[in-house]
Amino acid sequence: MSKDYKYIIIGGGMAGANAAIEIQKNDPEGSLLIVTDEADKPYHRPPLTKELWTDASYNESTVYYDFIDEAAIDFFTETTVTDIKPQEKVIKTEEGATYHYDKLLYAIGGTPNWIEGPESDRVLAIRNFADYRNLRHFAQKGSKAIVVGGGWVGAELAAALQTNQVDTTLLFPDETLNEKRLPIELAQKFQQSFIDAGVTLIPNAKADYYESDNNQIKLFLEDGQELTADVLILGIGIKPKIQLAEAAGIEVGNGVIANEYLQSSDKDIYVAGDVLNYIDLIMGRKKFEHEEQAVKSGQTAGRNMTGANEVYSHAAPLSYTDVLDISIEGVGDMSRNRDDAIIETAEDGYIVYYLSKGKPSGILTYNCKVDLDQARQIIANPPTTSEELRGSLKPL
């Protein structure tokens, strides 16, 4: 089988969905194909660890994307692209079919990091709808779950499972939960909320391998501890899926390298989402995995595929979590110099300014809302002294 399209999007995630919407806005007559290895058409992914567990008004049908003209899009689900031939402007699928494109978007995200152990439905990482459904099947009231990883996703899942009456253990490699992102006094508050909710925490822990035995998962830690549960969830990051691009001769590094217009080293192949390595106008060249980045990069890539010449100007993208009674938002680099951060109380929460060489590299709010565009401007054009920085953001 062979067919020609003006636009092909490889990847059915949020970046691909937002690119498709922009393509239909700007070139409604342009033929469009979305190819995804998932069984589902594109959907919003954050609810998989958030609202679908915590908000009764959410259900599976509410998270799918509404396209301008869905009937005009060809969707190939459960389809794997095995080859990209840039010189011929062709992609090839596992079934042997070939499809020609004028413009291609590479937005296939990443592969979850894993630990050693046999394949089992009871061991998963929440990367897609199938994972969510699988976890729902095993995470019954009174069952036991182990979550590995103390980042946003791991913490959200541990809290969601516990509040759904699943006996949940969360293990993480640090002394205090989320101390790599939060100043220690806020990390301690964050951790105490999980203790109060009934989550069993195991700090300073690293998972080594697991075994499957009689519908139970046994997890072995590097220090020799052994844990048993009905389901094991791994939230230990992802590796960007660069292999297909690399085999096609496209420049890769930590992700697929893109210019300011989100073009790869082949100008007719664009990049967006978790696999994108881009030029952040505030932070320099970055790869950033979060909802806002997927949305904004997908939108810009989609417009540029239709002929716009738009620099990707969305800088210092947002990361956030809403878990238990805590709401955290942050922009910029929050991965260093936490001990030197300026922490201000703001109403019932906190504003944190992370410093690098005396200037703000990132800004985070804890149970407090601020104008995040103003926060980005402060990072881009910082005050000359830390004293001037204090009080520069006001709660909304």
Widest sheet, order of strands: 4-3-2-8-21
Given the helix and strand composition, which structural class is it?
Answer: alpha/beta
Counting copies of identical and different chains, the oligomeric state is single chain
What's the mean pLDDT score? 95
Distance between the termini: 56 Å
Q: Please report the total strand number as a whole number.
A: 28
Helix content: 10-25%
Poorly predicted regions are none
Which range does the strand content fall in?
25-35%
Largest sheet geometry: 5 strands, parallel
Shape: globular
The value of Rg in angstroms is: 22 Å
What's the helix count? 9
Structure report:
It is a single chain. This protein has 396 residues and is an alpha/beta fold. It contains 9 helices and 28 strands. The strands form 7 sheets. Strands 4-3-2-8-21 form a 5-stranded parallel beta sheet, with helices on one face. Strand 27 (349-356) and strand 28 form a beta hairpin. The longest helix has 15 residues, at 291-305. The protein is globular. 44% of the residues are buried.
Describe, in short, the structure shown.
The chain has 396 residues and is an alpha/beta fold. It has nine helices and 28 strands. Helix 1 (14-26) runs parallel beside helix 7 (291-305).
Would you spell out the secondary-structure blueprint of this structure?
Layout: E1 2-4, E2 7-10, H1 14-26, E3 32-35, H2 51-54, E4 73-76, E5 81-85, E6 90-93, E7 98-100, E8 103-106, E9 110-112, E10 123-124, H3 129-138, E11 144-148, H4 152-163, E12 167-171, H5 184-197, E13 200-202, E14 207-213, E15 216-221, E16 226-229, E17 231-234, E18 238-240, H6 243-247, E19 252-253, E20 255-257, E21 269-271, E22 276-280, E23 284-286, H7 291-305, E24 318-323, E25 326-332, E26 342-346, E27 349-356, E28 359-366, H8 372-380, H9 386-389
Parallel strand pairs: 1-7, 2-3, 2-8, 3-4, 8-21, 10-17, 11-12, 11-17, 12-13, 20-22
Antiparallel strand pairs: 5-6, 6-7, 9-18, 14-15, 15-16, 19-20, 22-23, 24-25, 25-28, 26-27, 27-28
